[in-house]
Amino acid sequence: MFYLELLLVGLVWGCTYAMMALGLTLVYGLLRILHVAQATVFTLGAYVGLLVANHTGSLAGAFVAAALAAGLLGPLVYRFIYRPILDKPPFVALVASIGLLIAMEDGFRLLFGPYGLSFAKNTWFTTAVGFGGLSLNLVQVWIAVAAVVLLSLFALFATRTRAGVAWRATVSDPSIAESFGVGVSGVRHTSFFIASVLAGVAGVLVGLLNNLVEPGMGSVISYKGLAIIVLGGLGNVPGTLLASLLLGVVESFGTVYLGKLLDRDAIAFLFLILVLMIRPQGLLGKAR
Question: What residue ranges do the domains of the chain occupy?
Answer without folding.
Answer: 18-215
